[in-house]
Amino acid sequence: ASTAWAGPEAGHPNIIAAREAAQTAIEKMKAAQAANEYDMHGHAAKAEKLLHQAEQEMKMAAEAANEKK
């Protein structure tokens, strides 16, 4: 189920879907770390950090699109 987004993402269903996918990926990385499935050498934490950065970029993309309206 999609989250009702307010703010700059409102009206941008593709950006909303991308952010939801990033959030799911973050949750899965955290689950993998908690399960200690294998030695990740810090790569899981780095992936999570990059996903958070990607979320910020998606928000800024929505803001930029809104400026063009």
Describe the structure.
With 69 residues, the protein is mostly helical. It has helices at 13-35, 43-67. The protein is elongated and about 45 Å long. The two termini are 28 Å apart.
Which keywords apply here?
69 residues; mainly alpha; single chain
Fold topology:
Blueprint lengths: L12 H23 L7 H25 L2
Helix pairs in contact: 1-2
**Radius of gyration from the CA trace?**
14 Å
* H-E order: HH
For the biggest sheet, the summary is: none
Oligomeric assembly? single chain
Strand content: under 5%
Mean pLDDT: 88
Q: What is the first-to-last residue Cα distance?
A: 28 Å
**Coarse shape:** elongated
Main structural class:
mainly alpha
Q: Runs with pLDDT <50, length 5+? A: none
Helix content: 55-70%
Number of helices in the DSSP assignment = 2
Quick recap:
This protein is mostly helical and 69 residues long.
